[in-house]
């Protein structure tokens, strides 16, 4: 497996992270994603990390990178399915994923991408957290 | 990785096969899927195999099994993203995946699940093929 599949889902792209990420795989994913955002005109990117038991600084940086590049291409990135333990670890590590929006599950993430009015409310919630 | 994540997507469940399947993983997936169909009341299961370069009889049987069990639970199974080469190989091997519906991509698969009227048209097409 040298590529992570990117699924088109309405106006969004969906990536499910299932395997251990390493440099090359992360770079390939970023490249493929940017290409696919341009090709499809997607307005958002959903990254599901529900199967990740650990999110270290490498993955955190990758998510930040993807979000930053997607934003340049006018696509919102939403990380979905984060496990409670992962959230705790991220905060303990000081990795707050500032540039990345989160949602509990894919449905909520899709709602965020499709309804910009919801984005603002969530943005305010993020500030409180 | 001992579990393949199952994402809820509106009224459907989505599974992306990214890793090599083996007995235990396939059994775990079937179990998790049936449990999740019951828990969520999902009306369909989408299985994305776009990253699979080879679908052998083991995977074919797994897909058939999942479709048969899901049907018992009143959920339609649609395999999406099959590569052209995989389709050719499946036919050459005599594995026609009779019990499984297919769609080119996730969006079309979702349409199949959400609009039963489309299902029949496709069923007729399947008979012709």
UniProtKB/TrEMBL annotation, chains A, B:
InterPro entries: Bact_StressResp_Reg, STAS_dom, STAS_dom_sf. It comes from the Bacteria. SUPFAM superfamilies: SpoIIaa-like (SSF52091). CDD domains: STAS_RsbR_RsbS_like. Residues 1-113 form the STAS domain. It holds the Pfam family STAS. This is STAS domain-containing protein. It comes from Lacibacterium aquatile.
């Amino acid at each position: 497996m040298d590529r992570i599949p990117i699924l088109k889902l309405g106006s969004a792209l969906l990536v499910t992270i299932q395997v251990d990420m390493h440099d090359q795989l992360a770079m390939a994913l970023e490249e493929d994603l940017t290409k696919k955002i341009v090709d499809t005109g997607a307005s958002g990117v959903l990254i599901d990390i529900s199967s990740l038991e650990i999110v270290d600084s490498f993955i955190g940086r990758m998510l930040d990178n993807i979000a930053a590049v997607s934003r340049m291409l006018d696509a919102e990135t939403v990380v979905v399915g984060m496990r409670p333990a992962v959230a705790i670890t991220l905060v303990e590590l000081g990795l707050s994923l500032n540039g990345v929006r989160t949602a509990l599950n894919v449905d909520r993430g899709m709602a965020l991408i499709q309804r910009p009015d919801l984005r603002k409310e969530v943005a305010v919630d993020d500030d409180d957290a």
